[in-house]
Amino acid sequence: MVKEAVLGFYLFLFISISANCQVKLKGTVIDSTYKRAIEYVTVSSFEEEKTLVNKITLTNNSGKFELDGLPINKRLLLKFSVVGYKPATVDLKLTSTVAYDLGNVLMVQSPNYIDTINIIPPITLKGDTIEFNADAFDLDSNAVVEDLLHKLPGIVVWGDKSITYNGIPIPNILVNGKQFFGNDLSIALQNIDKKAVNKLQLYDKRRFEEKIKDPEKKDLEINILLKEGRENMLFGNIGGGIGSKNRLQSQLNLNKANKIWQNTIAFSGNSVNITVNSLDQLLKNTTYKGIGVNSDFSPDFQRQGITKQMVLASRSQYDFNPDANQTNKNLITANFFSNWALKKIKDTNTTILLNNNYLDQNLKENSTLNVQDGASQLLDIVYTRQLNPPIIEQKKTKNYGFNLNVENSNNEVHNTQNTIYNYSGNKSQNNITSLFNTNNKSLGLYTYYHSYPLLSSISKREDKSAFINNLETNVSLNVKYLENRFDGINNGIYNNVDNPTLNQNQERLYDNFNSISNFVSNIGIRYKKWNLEQEFQFKEANWNDNVYDNSKKNSNLTHISELFQYKYSIKTKFNKDLILQKFPGRYSKNLFLNAALGYNVVSDNNRSSINYRNFYQSFSNFTPLLSLNYNKNKIDKVDYNLSLQYAYNQLYPNVNDYKPFYDDINIGYRNYGYQHQLRSSGTHQLVLAGSINSLKKYGSNLSVEVSFKIIDNPILDSIELLNNQYALYKIQTENNIKAFNSKLSFNIAFLLANNNTLTLKLFGNYERGNTFLYFNSDLQDMIQENYIINTDVFFTLINTLQVGFKSNLSLYRRIESKFGIMSNSYNSTFFNNAIAVAYNINKRIILNSNIDYRSNYFRKNNLTSTVWNASLSYRGLKTNNLEIKIAVFDLLKQNKGFYFIENPYEFTSGSRNVLTNYLMFSISYFPRKFGKH
Questions:
Q1: Domains in the chain and their CATH numbers?
Q2: 762-803 pLDDT per residue, tens
Q3: pTM of this structure
Q4: What is the Cα–Cα distance from 212 to 846, expressed in whole angstroms?
Q5: What is the DSSP letter of 207?
Q6: CB count in 10 Å sphere of residue 56
Q7: What is the spatial distance between Cα 213 and Cα 204, in angstroms, rounded to a whole number?
Q8: DSSP label at residue 48
């Protein structure tokens, strides 16, 4: 009955979509005299007796254009305009849904023509910057910037809120040349009133030389220019909710700005497993427009345990140069984030050793109750200075700044753990009750300087030598100090079934202090095709640990130690165009060689009052890299990329790989580390990658990557079941580990009838590799495989309906030993399907629903659950500033906390307490004011 109701619900939403028919129009704009194509012509569609644009596009380099979603049986005026030509107009009425070809549209040259028609020009070209006039587009009175983007030619707002222009990503949006209350695009797109916007500027923000060398590899950015006085603004969200089972949720954020300042104060509190990790996360999920089907601010029904959280945050940004543009900045930003969280986790699990010989005897059962009460405070101050000319003439750059951060955190953990070992030679039970307090403090400073050319002066470049003019420098310094205090008590009761003489009841006290100082400096110098990079790292770590057993000092865990670590690396890079062909307006080809040779030196010196922790090691190695990159770009059509790369690197063992500390409060388990000197592990990697990108508004993107890796002298785990103990060792084998990895990503966007859009994102990953394990002196060579397939589908009817479907399939396989006496094959599967719907019944009533189906499969055991949430909200007041919502979570009451954890030699299955069914009523108010009046 429930399934039928769910299907009926989504069928109702599908039937509710409007059935208005629309049509596509295409044509070609040519010069009336020379009969040649004209590019960048603005093609605007106006409904009869209207002066605001209905649809708009630009002609490509062949003069061709397409207009989608035009209404039938309505009189339309098409206007064609471009600098240097008289505007052309076409009056027509489309009477069928068949695509209509307008043929050739002739435009007459007239350099001095002045347009006298009273229609707002929707698009203006300034150099390589496209400006969209916001007032030229017909939108709802409560529209925001995101609604405007849906009207602009070439721009697609994908279902996951990423943005592209003719298939090219737009990762960043500025407002009046500055970041807008953080880094997330939604904060600007879903809050700023469309009526406050003057223009949207779209441009390639790369340096002048980069544009000349490769004009089609664009790094796009949007800058929103507000109308005069509209930078004085106030917006935000004030809301709260109360639910059954003592569930609570509240949030507040107020954002105020003028030409100089941006200030935010925010609060969030909840008992429904919503974790706020940053101020940006809170702001992007409480926007005026609403988040639709892409929230990461919803109750988390998959998380282990129940979490209560309160967050207090603020941000202030000051502009020393309020009249600066996007290339000339002088800003300082201070961020404060305070977090308190109480987590309660109940966990019961069983772990089995994966070998058929001992499967029935070798397992471990564990039950845990963990309560964490923690608080943290973070202060972050960022200064940014950019001294660059405008985008259109940017030939030199100078940037510098710093990032200062201070952090403090306190955490109290109560833990009760009961473990039953049922291993051959070890049948015992260990019960541990603990109370720990941890305090962490850190202070960090990162500073950087970038200049091109070296010692550049914006006003005087011609006075410098040609050599200096081609030098680019990057310098950075990163200094950080960390301090950790740890104290607590462990009570351990150990009972051994086979040997009662090993039974013990122990009380252990801890009073530990640890400090770490890190220093990292980087210097990079580039001269034409050559690049030299140097990095120096120094790390000093100090430990003063005091451990007591029943009031007596424990000599195995009490120690004073210090670690001195030095790392130096130098790398030379060279790049060269082997093939470079450019055919303006048609296509370009480029075959690019990139070669690098690095040299690394590493030294570790660990001194300790515990003898076995004293050691010194040093390593040095070369790290070569060689790659070939091919690109072919068919202007305004498609972009092809193919690359082949080889790289070599090394990994080094650390002190805990040799002799980790042994805390025998859990006597049934011990990590022995490695008894002898370890060598570094070398990694050879070969990567072949390719992509095909469609350079159209509704286009596609396909990328494929295949890599093969060989690891020399790998450091691996080894297990031995000793009498009364599960022992873990580190081993280093001469056998190579070989791993194969392949990735596929495919994205495509469609424009359907009725202004509907459909976006699809598909990701697949396949990994296969071998690994080794000694189990009681028997060597196993295991093959591991991982399959991951993720699918995201979003259907959108602008301002009416959003439907999102996400599917995640993960398969893990371990294939039977190649040699050895044990069989250890198994596989496990995790499958997750989720569908979410946001339906605007009208401008005030919104229906949201999402269904999440999960399945975990292992050894013929299949665990499933379905979580269905639904909400109904109403927007009140004239400007829709008031929202009243009622929501029901976990309608089917099926949420379960089962989980699987796999590794090469063990498999763990268990269950944890999770969030379950509840009802919540909430109310929110969105203050909004753009401008002084």
A1: 22-121 (2.60.40.10), 125-231 (2.170.130.10), 355-557 (no CATH)
A2: 999 999 998 887 777 777 788 889 999 999 888 887 668 888
A3: 0.85
A4: 49
A5: -
A6: 22
A7: 13
A8: T
